[in-house]
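Re-run with default settings, no changes from the original entry. Doing this only to confirm the output is reproducible before filing.
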Amino acid sequence: MALAGNAGSSGAQFLLSLVLVARLPPAGFGLFAFLLLLAQFVFAVAAALFVAPMAAIARETARTDGRTSFEQRGEQAWTVLSVLQLIYALSAAIVAIAASALLGTGWSGAAIYGLLVLFGCLRQFGRISQYSRADQSGVVASDAFFLVTLLVGVLLILVVDPSRAITLAFAAMALAHAVGTAPLRSQFRELRHHLAMPRNAMPTAGILETYRTIWSRYSGWSLLGVVSTEATANAHSYLVTLMLGPAGYGAIAASAVLTRPGNVALVALGEFERARLARIHATSQDPAGSRSLFRAATAAIWLGSVGLACAVLVGFPDLLTARGYDRGDFTLAAWGWLAVLLARCAYLPASTEMQALGAFRELAWPTVIAMPVSLIGTALLLVYFSPPWTLAAITLGQVVAGVLIVSRFRQLVVQPRAVPCP
């Protein structure tokens, strides 16, 4: 049910992107896509700092007291993470407003974009918190509310003036995240209780001391991995936009619409499996069956993305290129995105299980090593070739990172389990 709900959310975001590609000029869609990329980076940093440690904390809690419920132990750590997540979300929203205004959305559009960042961070935290507590009901309801609200926004975008489409798109996404937070309200009750307590009940020093431990064991390495992954996976987006502007990024961004459902589905699948694998390891169960299902799911996601891309490129070639995109560049970028998605599908099961085990340090270094490959390759290809060719460098960086991650995963997880106990 949880995965089905996320499939619906993925489909709604795909429809939103399709409508915007059809209604906006390349520069306009490039601006929308770049701001959405920035928002996703904000969410990724929040996940590294406050969300990713949850599964590892839950696993260690279960091993410590023999119980699997996250509520029974580790509540102080959860409270600290939730308080700091709220501070981060508010700060990130302010920065997002400034960045959006500088890029030309106007202050009203920038304010709406800031709300998208704020509520997106809160909903992400609530979803993963509920996963960590082995409770999927709120997540399913959250995804359903998000889906319905965003679909209403898509319908409105179809009838408004194209000049207002970007602002309305961000408003629809912000409202969808806000409405989607409502079913997760139980995850914020303890936070409200803490905020209502006297300041001496849990002083700031206590919060920082608790998070210092979480930072040194999990979040610091997770953040390094997120930053290096962003450089490895999205270096072309920043370099192309910086050098050529949103219009130069337009064809790459528009073709990415074809793989967006697959990417959203991979994120959702990783969130679900990370919590599930943490519980499996905590109770000393055999994860072999779950690994096989995980790999099968990633393969299905990639094959579905290939089918969607082929259907659009062959059956409806003008659907996404009617607003002035070069068809050759668009097709090249689409296959480049599929190559990037294939590399992600190949190593996602290994990286997710390592996150569940708290192996953030081991996960960080492969992307750090692969980062120069993507950065240097992107810069060189951008000098000599058209922007879609930069995806070749991104694919190569993802392959390097994937090979190193899978190799390290086998050393840490698979091989030790294969050695019989004396």
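The chain has 14 helices and no strands. Residues 66-73, 418-422 have pLDDT under 50 and may be disordered.
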